[in-house]
Amino acid sequence: MVNLKMKNKVRELRAHWKMTQEDLAKAAGVSRQTIIAIESEKYDPSLPLAFKISKVFKMKIEEIFVFE
Amino acid sequence: MIGKAEWFTTRKFGWGLGVKTNEGIIYVVGILAILALISLLPIDTDLKFIGSAFVIGIVILDTAHIMVQVHSNLDEREQKHQMLAETVASYIGIISLSIFLIYLILTSPNNRPDWNVVGPIIAILLAMSFAKGITLLWAQRKW
Q1: Interface membership of B72 toward A (CB under 8 Å)
Q2: H or E element that contains A8
Q3: Phi, psi of B113, deg, nearest 5
Q4: ipTM over 0.95
Q5: Domain segments of chain A: what residues?
Q6: Is A66:A4 a contact under the CB 8 Å cutoff?
Q7: How is chain B split into domains, by residue range?
Q8: Nearest CA of chain A to the CA of B73: how many Å?
Q9: Rounded to whole angstroms, how far apart are CA atoms B115 and B69?
Q10: Whole-prediction pTM
Q11: pLDDT along chain B (143 residues), means of 10
Q12: Nearest residue on chain A to B78, judged by CA atoms?
């Protein structure tokens, strides 16, 4: 089985949209610590949470979260 | 109910609630003040007991209500953390009880342990395994 790791562009997109981690956390309905964990790729979000984040950035999920 | 979930948080060590906001502190101090007031009132001891029991009963119900809300306010990552912590705690509990049970059997005269002690421990272990099974069955049916 191929061991894939999920990468994401949440930090870059948050900076692009000039959002704080707190803003994104509120918009996605999670804690700021969870946003920190996602940005540092320590935690892979569930599909519903990934959808919420992609909705905040008005992008498709696969444009934000990629398997490498 | 009286208290609000946003005033409290889950405790990192142990179970139950930790105070998060000033409103939470006021809530706790208020309850203690009411209990102290009841104990100081110039009334019959039985009445004091009934009054205190009534207040404590309300607090227990309110705490249970707050705890459910606090847990449902956790996000998916925090819920995973809680589940992992509860799992580790229950494993430690099971291992400790099992070791204590074996110790009691091995150190008892003629390997005949005191069933007043061994019985409840076995009952607790059976209750834990029953709770695990029921929870798994419920979870598998739910999702």
Answers
A1: no
A2: strand A6-8
A3: -70, 165
A4: no
A5: 6-67
A6: no
A7: 5-72, 76-142
A8: 9
A9: 41
A10: 0.78
A11: 89 86 95 95 91 95 92 90 93 95 91 90 95 95 90
A12: A34
